[in-house]
Amino acid sequence: MIKIILPVLVCFSAINVYADEVSPVDAKLLASATVNKAICTNCPDISKIADRENFDDSLYYANTHAADNLDISGFKTALSQDISAEHKQLTYSEVWTALTYTDEDPNNSSNVILIYKGNSIPKNHNASGVNDQDYWNREHVWAKSHGFPGKSQHGYTDIHHLRPSDMSMNSARGNNDFDIGGSAVSEAPDNLKNGALSWEPRDAVKGDVARMMFYMDTRYEVGSDDDMPDLLLVDRVGTSTSSSLTSAGEMGKLCTLLEWHAVDPVDNFERDRNNSIFEYQGNRNPYIDHPEWTEIVYKDVCGSAIITPVVTIAAITPVKEGEAVNIVAQSNIDGVSFLWQQISGAPVTIAQLNTASLNFVAPEVDADSELGFKVTMTDSFGSTANDTVILSIKDKPLTLSIMAVSVVYEGNKVSLKSASNGVDASYLWQQIAGSTVTITDTTKPQLEFTAPQVTGAESISFSLTVTDMKGETVTQTVVLTVNDKIVTTPPTDPEVTPPTEDTSSSGGALHYLWGLLLATGVIVRRKY
To answer: In 62-168, where do the E strands start and end?
Structure first.
């Protein structure tokens, strides 16, 4: 049984969780549709025909998404149609210029990365009219002698399988098939050559080579182009050269390439390269956009030993500082283990690194930034695969709110309470209008004072400025209306009502009169 290495497919629920990086030169080109021809020797101007930012997977691969996954032939035909529709054929001279952008060194925009040696050399060291074995030329990963030896043929100038390679390494590889084994190449011993039969590239580009070969096998089907034969990946080495348009151009070795596809998953350099080709040639490599489609197209070719497990990493991006973050890796097969590590950005505290789910709190950041994590998966055979996920961390803006009633009365105690998300924040209150009040402490989140004496109604206002540990500030103003006190009449004693005269009894009336006279001190004597 062939040992399987698990690839990792990164999916994001939101756009653009980051996965793709735009090179500095490509960023400049967004503002200019034409490439500067002076970048390398005999490199003509080429113009962009698409914008990577406008790529829509559902529209671009419409036929493929609608195809029946169980119908291998129909699925592959639909895929070929999708990636052929907008393919602009470049001239072989234009390939020079295109490769200076598709294979640009991400750390040095003046250089390109060579596929087999992996070193970075100046873009203008291209071997156009220069016989220097250390200069770079245009390596046909699918050997041009296996189906399209003419410069006018589509496959000859298809930059999906053309890579910069130094002249001597290009010659050393020749038109060999790809397979494991052989002797180390003296100039770049990470590459192995088995005579005239096979070539094994360095580990870092094994998956790149495989996906380029899958692309060529899918792009050039029977009848796809008048100038091209059917290109066919076979599971053997020692394939023959061919220039016939009626018989297949063959390359191998398919099952080895499927293993390499698994052992070396798609990385950011490859994604960026696919986006650059889309801009200049108009089409894409579907096995970079959807590595899992190899299991549909080639699932029965190598028997049950070859499987392309799909692993998805679900993450929400961007996230805000201080938010809880959850990233989940899942495999479509059982018996795998996971190991996470942080590879970039402000350090975060992670409780468990060896589970499928990664949980942490997004760190406080001074500005929008990124966090990078790498997950390594190990299968039951002990084989490993890994991939990375990049999260965008948004700097949460400093916020402030003041809670207060809008109307108070003179002489009343007033409390203005504030709330802010600032970390280790400082506070400063100021009165900015109205009758002056006495404030004992202006540096606390809560401001307390006694409402001033006013006549009628008067507005008083205060400002609060909050500064957090990062130096960010925010100011808010609050306006209060102070009313004078409402004057009210204190309640009086109940009115005393004189006794009611009892008209039904003369004695009662006389008694009342007699009491009245006594009260006034007047005594009347009768005279006889």
So the answer is: 104-105, 108-113, 120-122, 136-140, 162-166
Q: What is the pTM for the complete model shown?
A: 0.57
Rounded distance between C-alpha atoms, residue 319 and residue 391, angstroms? 8
How, if at all, do strands 369-378 and 400-403 pair? Answer: unpaired
HSE of 466, CA atoms in CB hemisphere, 13 A = 22
Sign of the CA dihedral with 22 first, then 28, 33, and 36 last: negative
Listed residue (351, 289, 339, 345) closest to 318, CA to CA: 345
Tokens of 391: 């999260």
Domain shared by 356 and 472, yes or no: no
Report the domain count for the chain.
Answer: 3
Tell me the three state secondary structure of residue 1. Answer: coil
Which pLDDT band holds residue 187 (cuts at 50, 70, 90)?
very high
Please list the residues that pair with 175 across neighbouring strands.
Answer: none
Most confident of the ranges 62-76, 316-330, 359-373: 62-76
42 with 129, same domain?
yes
Amino acid at position 377, single letter: M
Q: pLDDT tens across 473-521, in order?
A: 999 999 999 999 865 445 555 444 444 444 444 444 444 434 443 444 4
Q: Please check whether residues 433 and 350 belong to one and the same domain.
A: no
pLDDT in tens, 194-248: 999 999 999 999 999 999 999 999 999 999 999 999 999 999 999 999 999 999 9
The whole domain housing 82 covers 33-305
Q: Given 290, 305, 320, which residue is the final one in a domain?
A: 305
Residues 184 and 264 in one domain: yes
